[in-house]
Amino acid sequence: MAKSTVVPFEQPSEFSPDPLTEVIESGAKHLPGAAVQAEVSAFIAEHAHLPDETGRPRLVRHGFLPERRVMTRIGSAPVVTGRVRDRGSDPDGTKIRFRSSLAPPYLREARSVEELLS
Questions:
Q1: Short-list 51, 117, 118, 37, CA closest to 88
Q2: Nearest CA among 78, 79, 80, 82 for reference residue 44
Q3: What is the pLDDT of residues 48-86, one digit of tens each?
Q4: Tens digits of per-residue pLDDT, 5-34?
Q5: Other Cβ atoms closer than 10 A to 61
Q6: What is the pTM of this model?
Q7: Which end of the chain is more exposed for a tag (fewer CB within 10 A), N or C?
Q8: Which residues have a Cβ under 8 Å from the Cβ of 112 and sit 6 or more positions away?
Q9: Residues 88/52, Cβ–Cβ less than 8 Å
């Protein structure tokens, strides 16, 4: 029985086997949250011409909903949706509500993942 003289090489924990892939995955996981924030900004800008009773902007940012994770093809991605507060109301008493088209309230998996699983 011969002893092996090959010593296994251990990679340091900070070293990634493919740094480019790691950077791409990291950026892609933050992209859905950034897209939803851009959607909130566009929604508020679209209604910027509407003042409340005191002349201030009617729609304002009002914090964030709790972070939730959405399953995508590259893995789980955090999504934080901003809250929008309507400080006024229409003559009939209705308020303007923000609903994200990118991350609806009950979305747990991206549509592409649902198609892959079915």
A1: 51
A2: 82
A3: 998 888 889 999 998 988 888 887 777 778 888 888 998
A4: 887 776 655 555 677 777 887 888 888 888
A5: 14
A6: 0.68
A7: N
A8: 72, 73
A9: yes
**How many angstroms separate the CA atoms of 28 and 74, rounded?**
8
The tokens describing 82, both together, are 């901003």
**CA angle, corner 90, sides to 83 and 55, nearest 5?**
75
Rounded Cα distance between 92 and 98, Å, is: 18
Number of neighbours of residue 33 by Cβ within 10 angstroms: 20
Alpha-carbon gap, residue 48 to 63, rounded angstroms: 18
Q: Kindly write down the DSSP assignment for every residue of the chain, as one continuous string.
A: -PPP---PPPPPTT--S-HHHHHHHHHHHHHHHHHHHHHHHHHHHHTTT-B-TTSSBSEEEEEEPPPEEEEETTEEEEE-PEEEEE-S--TTS-------SSS-TT--B-HHHHHHH-
- Give 109's strand partners: 71
CB atoms within 10 A of CB 29: 17
